[in-house]
Amino acid sequence: MEEKLKKLKCLLAEIANLKAANAVLGWDQLVNMPGGATEDRGEQIAALEHIMHAKVTSDEIGKLLDELAVGARQIDPESDEACLIRVAKRDYEKQTKVPAEFVTEMARVSTVAQSVWEKAKNHSDFELFRPHLEKLVGLRRQYADFFKPWDHVYDPLLDDFEPGMKTAEVQAIFNALRPKQVELIKAISQTKQVERSFLFLDYPENGQLAFGEKVISKFGYDWNHGRQDKSAHPFTTSFGLNDVRITTRFNSNYLPTAMFGTMHECGHALYELGIDKKFNRSPLADGASMAVHESQSCMWENLIGRSKPFWKHFFPMLQEIFPSQLGNVDVDTFYEGVNAVEPSLIRVEADEATYNLHIMLRLEMEIALMEGSLSAKDAPAAWNAKFKDYLGIVSPDDAKGILQDVHWSFGGFGYFPTYALGNLVSAQLWERMNKDIPNLEEQVEKAQFSEILGWLRKNLHVYGAKFEPQELVKKVTGSKITPEPYIHYLEYKFKAIYNL
Ligand code: CO
Predict the structure, then answer these.
(1) Which domain holds residue 18?
(2) Beta-sheet pairing, 244-248 with 236-238
(3) CATH code of the domain containing 455
């Protein structure tokens, strides 16, 4: 077994190196590359992907995994070796169960669909996009069939982002969460709203950049193993465990965009930088799932970055950078302003109290489309009805309604629920951490984050992708993903802000 494991690790390291090289090409494209190079870069990335795919699905790896599976059953299932074999086998099966012709067809259809979606969004014309959505739904059903047997047609799609998680589990969680959130935002909408006009003043970019860098340096972001650049859409990317980079974007007339965006991406980066270095260049050098990843960005952005103790420390610093904009605002008003709740049409601009509702309606629609209980033709009406139900508002057009997100334009079903699950996990971890670190708030108020980061590293980050998300969350918090801590957090926070 020793020899074979060594051979497998060697092959997997080669794939990881190619993946990192490909990520550098992708990062460069979004951060530095001149527009005229798009076509060439596409070719370069496709060439690398072709090589990677051949290596990932090679008979050599398949045979090794089969042979190792026998030995793996005799060792501790939580050992690094057993986990590596299991994760590598899962990746191998995911890649080999889907025929190459299908992958090509999916790529072809989604490329066309994406460009049509852009046009449809610009003209707010859902009918233009409808036949493409129908095709994509058909293809995703076909994709699900490659992984039969399953309990629900949506399971294989969800599994791509949340390994091992079932549609029924997510539905049960969201069914408990939805009425509580709907009730909360109804109560908020009927009371006096908070002041936040000061967030929309002119905030020069260099001041925003300086503040963001100060904050994430305090969080513990290691500039020797990372950097921050500008891009149209913020993201985090990793080229192995020693180089995890983030990007941000600035809106000179809206302070929160870069400020919280930077904290969010830093949270993702701190996770990857905290993974045990012995997993470098292996499939374990990754987050456990999208939801667990999102729990880390949510924690630094919201539970810490939108908290009162945080602003007690950082607001004077921000006032110093922007004296004319914030000199006359006090810390309580600022805290309330950055936490303002307002049902809005656009998901990416939604606040903490309404965000999950945007997700839930998308998930319900994805499931209904996949089941066939909703047709693409009826989708806009279903969207608007759910929106009215959950958020109390209706979009004036499809551009700000069903056509707003890019995800469906490439058949990216299964991704949305991970955002909301991440919120829930962040609150579960926070609750657990508060038990282990009794003066946690005091530490945040002093901008001392080393114990918090240390706790996250020791209890969560270090494992990388060793465990499935439900297993990992249970290991750390004592229970699987559950909505109660998040509901408590929301109610406690927003009842205080809105005097409910
Ligand atoms: Co994120």
Answers:
(1) 2-152
(2) antiparallel
(3) 1.10.1370.30
